[in-house]
């Protein structure tokens, strides 16, 4: 057993598109993920955050080999899976599973809950002890659904319950790593907490590791041990949850945290906000130098020419910035 | 003294094959110029339906609306529920305006943003197309869109999500409305862009002394901008109070549960979230008693099964603080204190 369940080294995923219109021959490259280093230890939850278009979902999908990585290396439990073929990948697939954002689109409306979960067993030729039906019912029970509902269809469930079905399906093959892509963002506030608690419990019980991809920093803060902040395909800051939220050192992390509204009116009135100007630049044409230079308030000449190297600024806290914020 | 908008006993229901959906039930609230009222609730709690009724945007053939919604104009109050369609149509855009959650589906893809804003302006102003475009540029500049001379001729798909929402705001405000209803205006946006938009709305409100109704499910956003809060559940208002009362002295178990169930970035620690168990009710078969009773942790503390049998009234529990609960303030405080000592 390796020290880390997942290790990404300089992972890149570039997509080719046509530049200048549909009929144009000119090809452009979207650098959706551009050199990401990330490790997840056994039983650890790593939060991956950033604005839409920063490449966080692409990282999750590349880890699952839904996308073929362009460059870099991916180690799963110490074994290189970067360029494995579909067939060679199969034994690993059962050890890593995914939970999707949209509980309405990710379940086949024509299949019953039982069929949806059973398909994992069929594909991997697994015959669980006590039979498949019993295994499925145990799973349903485990995620807080009524085991008698095995023959119901997805439309008979609410959003939160469907997300539980998605979780049961992900757990069926007893994976070690779960990539959860915005698992609670489509749910109502009062249901979000239920699902977050469920994910917490399952981790404690089954020793799961999570790659938790989300944009909601309050949820990420709650569930993660460590957090990776991405911007325009690159990692800006990696730190333990505590250091990241108490003492963010990258200006982008600081701005992102200051933009999260806190449900406490007195604190809100006192708070000084850093309001970032403008939007995320297009990943087809990222700025030279530091990718954050178009919105950063601390830029100097160096930021427009030199790409900042990732350095360890405090134990366990790495950032890519020429002019880091002081520690709190 | 009457406020600018006063909604009184408004109910909205939709007859469907499965039965009548009572989407909004006996809703009353008011909002004054310069004030921001937040309406908070989960999907299906009736928050959008109520405000679409105020805007007169329901299909009269498929919707039953009862109650009143007075807009107090200088010329006298107008009840937008009973007023003829034509009267309401002439108020829409000028007296009251609305922005929606998804700006992409609210903007027309075939027309340039300048065209669309100029059209809204042209409805209430006689002027040439050139005047309309000049006004559109002015508005785009006001909402912070750079390079206006070029952008005014561009189409919605050429704008980012945040910029589209700015275009929507520009269009909604082009005729200086007194009331702006913002239905989840920042839900589809990233937090950094969300804070830009909220800051923009706050600034425009001060400048034009608008009444804003903000429909949202995000209590963080509420804490940031609202003066007053209505919490909705199962088609009813369950609590209506000032912002500080709502957050620091909630008197309805649903509000209490909602506030406790959200993780906060400023409070570190891996404590367990106190989730509200169960599911929101179906609006077709609302419980006879309190709609929140099946999920309420305190229902058993009320004597005589009252929560199951009788729906509580929206009582004034303390000055200007309304809540719908059988528990008295003292009882609720005792139960909450007991919970807290139990948790320790």
Structure, explained:
The complex is a heterodimer of chains A (328) and B (344). With 328 residues, chain A is an alpha/beta fold. Chain A has a domain at 4-95 and 175-228: P-loop containing nucleotide triphosphate hydrolases (Rossmann fold, 3-Layer(aba) Sandwich). In chain A, 30% of the residues lie in helices and 24% in strands. Chain A is built from 10 helices and 12 strands. Chain A has helices spanning 56-63, 86-93, 113-123, 132-142, 159-171, 189-206, 217-223, 241-246, 251-259, 265-270, and strands at 4-18, 27-41, 45-49, 71-76, 79-80, 96-99, 177-181, 209-213, 226-231, 234-240, 310-314, 317-320. Chain A has an 8-stranded mixed beta sheet, sandwiched between helices. In chain A, strands 2-1-4-5 form a 4-stranded antiparallel beta sheet. In chain A, helix 3 packs across helix 4 (132-142). The two termini of chain A are 37 Å apart. The relative contact order of chain A is 0.14. The mean pLDDT of chain A is 92. With 344 residues, chain B is an alpha/beta fold. Among the domains of chain B are: 106-174, no CATH class; 256-343, no CATH class. Chain B has helices at residues 47-54, 85-91, 103-106, 113-122, 129-142, 148-151, 161-172, 191-208, 219-225, 243-248, 253-261, 306-309, 329-343; strands at residues 5-16, 19-31, 36-40, 64-73, 76-79, 96-99, 179-183, 211-216, 228-233, 236-242, 314-318, 321-324. Chain B has an 8-stranded mixed beta sheet with strand order 6-7-8-3-9-10-12-11, sandwiched between helices. Classes of the chains: A alpha/beta (328), B alpha/beta (344). Chain B: Residues 5-259 form the ABC transporter domain. Chain B: Its main location: membrane. Chain B: Keywords: ATP-binding, Cell membrane, Membrane, Nucleotide-binding, Transport. Chain B: It is a peripheral membrane protein.
């Amino acid at each position: 057993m390796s020290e880390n369940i997942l290790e990404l080294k300089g992972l890149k995923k570039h997509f080719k598109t046509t530049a200048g219109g549909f009929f144009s021959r000119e090809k452009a490259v979207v650098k959706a993920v551009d050199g990401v280093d990330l490790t997840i230890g056994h039983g650890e939850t790593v939060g991956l955050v950033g604005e839409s278009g920063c490449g966080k979902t692409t990282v999750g999908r590349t880890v699952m080999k839904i996308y073929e990585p362009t460059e870099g290396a991916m180690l799963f439990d110490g074994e290189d899976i970067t360029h494995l073929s579909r067939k060679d990948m199969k034994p690993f697939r059962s050890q890593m599973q995914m939970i999707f954002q949209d509980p309405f689109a990710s379940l086949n409306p024509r299949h019953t809950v039982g069929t949806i979960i059973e398909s994992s067993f069929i594909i991997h030729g697994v015959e669980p002890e006590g039979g498949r039906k019993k295994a499925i019912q145990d799973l349903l029970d485990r995620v807080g659904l009524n085991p008698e509902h095995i023959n119901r269809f997805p439309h008979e469930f609410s959003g939160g319950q469907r997300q539980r079905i998605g979780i049961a399906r992900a757990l069926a093959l007893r994976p070690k790593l779960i990539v959860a892509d915005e698992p609670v963002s489509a749910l109502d506030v009062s249901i979000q907490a239920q699902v977050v608690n469920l994910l917490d419990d399952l981790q404690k019980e089954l020793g799961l590791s999570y790659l938790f991809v989300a944009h909601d920093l309050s949820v990420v803060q709650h569930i993660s041990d460590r957090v990776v902040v991405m911007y325009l395909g690159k990692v800006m800051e990696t730190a333990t949850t505590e250091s990241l939220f108490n003492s963010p050192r990258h200006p982008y992390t600081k701005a992102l945290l200051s933009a999260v509204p806190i449900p406490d009116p007195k604190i809100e009135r006192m708070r000084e906000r850093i309001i970032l100007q403008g939007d995320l630049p297009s990943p087809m044409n990222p700025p030279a130098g530091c990718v954050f230079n178009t919105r950063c308030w601390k830029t100097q000449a160096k930021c427009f020419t030199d790409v900042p190297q990732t350095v360890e600024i405090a134990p366990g806290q790495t950032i890519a910035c020429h002019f880091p914020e002081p520690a709190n | 003294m009457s406020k600018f908008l006063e909604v009184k006993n408004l109910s909205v229901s939709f007859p469907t094959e499965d039965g009548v959906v009572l989407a909004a039930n006996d809703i009353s609230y008011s909002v004054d110029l310069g004030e921001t009222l937040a309406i908070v609730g989960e999907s299906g709690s009736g928050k959008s339906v109520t405000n679409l009724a105020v805007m007169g945007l329901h299909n009269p053939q498929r919707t039953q609306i009862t109650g009143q919604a007075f807009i107090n104009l200088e010329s006298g109050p107008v009840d937008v529920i009973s007023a003829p369609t034509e009267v309401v149509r002439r108020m829409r855009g000028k007296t009251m305006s609305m922005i929606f959650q998804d700006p992409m589906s609210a903007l027309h893809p075939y027309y340039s943003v300048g065209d669309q804003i100029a059209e809204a302006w042209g409805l209430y102003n006689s002027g040439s197309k050139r005047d309309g475009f000049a006004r559109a540029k002015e508005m785009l500049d006001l909402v912070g869109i750079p390079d206006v001379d070029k952008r005014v001729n561009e189409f919605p798909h050429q704008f980012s999500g945040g910029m589209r929402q700015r275009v929507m705001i520009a269009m909604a405000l082009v005729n200086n409305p007194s009331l702006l209803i913002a239905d989840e205006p920042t839900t589809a946006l990233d937090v950094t862009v969300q804070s830009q938009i909220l800051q923009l709305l706050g600034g425009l409100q001060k400048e034009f002394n608008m009444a804003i109704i903000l429909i949202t499910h995000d209590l963080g956003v509420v804490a940031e901008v609202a003066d007053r809060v209505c919490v909705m559940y199962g088609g009813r208002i369950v609590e209506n109070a000032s912002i500080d009362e709502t957050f620091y002295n909630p008197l309805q178990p649903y509000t209490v549960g909602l506030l406790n169930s959200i993780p906060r970035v400023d409070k570190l620690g891996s404590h367990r979230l106190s989730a509200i168990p169960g599911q929101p009710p179906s609006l077709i078969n609302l419980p006879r008693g309190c709609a929140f009773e099946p999920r309420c942790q305190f229902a058993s503390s009320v004597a005589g099964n009252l929560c199951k049998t009788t729906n509580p009234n929206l009582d004034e529990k303390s000055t200007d603080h309304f809540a719908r609960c059988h528990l008295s303030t003292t009882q609720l405080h005792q139960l909450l204190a007991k919970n807290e000592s139990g948790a320790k």
